[in-house]
Amino acid sequence: MRTTSLLATVAVATALSTAVSGCGSDSSSGDDSSQAGIGYFQSATIGPEVLVAGNPDLAGKIASKIKLTPIDSGVAGLAELRGGAFPFVSGVGNPPVTGAIAQDTKLKVIYAEYFDAAQLIVPKSVKTDADLAGKTVGALQGSSEDFEIRGWLKTKGLDKKVKVVGFPSEAAIAAAYKAKKIDAGYVEIAQALDLKKNAGGRQVVTAEEIAKLGYPSVNVLAVTDDFAKSNKPVVQQVVCQVMKAQTIESGQQADAYITKAAKIVGAPGEQAIAATKVLPFVDADQQQEYLKPGGGLSKAYQLTGEFLVDQGRTKTVPSNEDIASHIDGSYVDQALKDGCDK
Asked: CA–CA separation, 219 vs 94, rounded Å?
């Protein structure tokens, strides 16, 4: 169980993401076409790509320079990837990846990184799931969180009884909850902590728990087909070091590695540690299950395609064949054989 002081630190650390998002963070320079450029979300939360770039013993195992380029959203990141800004993109969730598959973007999903850290927060007057009937739940419109909460409501038989209201930001959801404009909010960790501490809310379910119910939204690492074709050994090395980074972030050495990597994004070490440790990483031993044909990611993208059609954001749901052609689990298979999870 986390202490109150740690929870407060996590909230501050997550909020810091806005402050550091404008900082430059290239870990190298140069225009080498084989450079391992990675589009990533710059924040106090240290993703595996930042942990690799910020620790020479990991980065040095990749036979290519790493260049980190901040992105503002998954949709924007994939658009930049299509435009040639970088060959890798990290931390993109279901809706933008599924949309990219529907557009036949020439990429492969090669690693399942982490689930969202979102939580459903309700007032204490809502004592059971059934009490949500007739009520409104705020969610970030069109996002992974939107997909997740609608999926959870289906598993509870509440999808026709609860109205999901779309908001443009997590902060807007929290403000609406505090003002009693909505009855519940499905929000990321910083807002969830705030609503539990300052608005009398309680947690009902998390994104990781929703994933186990059949509606996983997984933030992934993807690479362009062209780069993978020309630089297969580099792609293999990146996957190996990302796997090793996530193993480290869940282990006893995490603090030292996160502190060193935090310098890249300009975040204080203590805040980066607190923010990173709440991320629900997909363990190395789960990777093959998610990346195999017809596995967890394939099912998630199929369900997300249905969600995007319902939202009017795409016209058709990608076929199982189209989805399978955009997922490549061979790098994970090799990384496990090579002991990259040790």
From this structure: 7
CA distance 9 to 153: 31
Kind of pairing between the strands at 136-140 and 107-115? unpaired
Q: Would you say 74 and 143 are in contact if contact means Cβ atoms under 8 Å apart?
A: no
Torsion of CA 307, 309, 313, 318, to 10 degrees: 90
Domains and CATH numbers, the chain: 4-116+217-337 (3.40.190.10), 119-212 (3.40.190.10)
Cβ atoms 53, 261 nearer than 8 A: yes
Q: What is the pTM of this model?
A: 0.86
Residues making up the chain, counted from first to last: 342
Residue 323 and residue 108: Cα distance in Å, rounded? 10
Binning the chain into helix, strand and coil, the percentages to the nearest 5 are 50, 15, 35
Q: Please report, as a single letter, which amino acid is at residue 283.
A: D
Residue 146 pLDDT greater than 50, yes or no: yes
Distance, CA of 61 to CA of 260 (rounded, Å): 17
Orientation angle between helical segments 4-20 and 189-198, nearest 10 degrees: 130
**Residue 278: what pLDDT?**
87
pLDDT, one tens digit per residue, over 166-209 is 999 999 999 999 999 999 999 998 899 999 999 999 999 999 99
Q: Is the pLDDT of residue 163 over 50?
A: yes
CB 210 within 8 A of CB 115: no
In this structure, are residues 82 and 289 in contact, taking their beta carbons and an 8 Å threshold? no
The Cα 339–Cα 335 span in angstroms is: 6
In a 10 Å sphere around its CB, with 0-12 CB exposed, 13-18 middle and 19+ buried, how is residue 123 labelled? middle
Tokens of 187: 């929000």
Q: Which secondary structure element, helix H or strand E, spans residue 123, and what is its range? A: strand 119-123
Banded model confidence at residue 31, pLDDT cuts 50, 70, 90: very low
- For 23-88, give the DSSP string: S---S-----TT-EEEEE--SSS--HHHHHHT-HHHHTTSSS-EEEEE-S-HHHHHHHHHTTS-SE
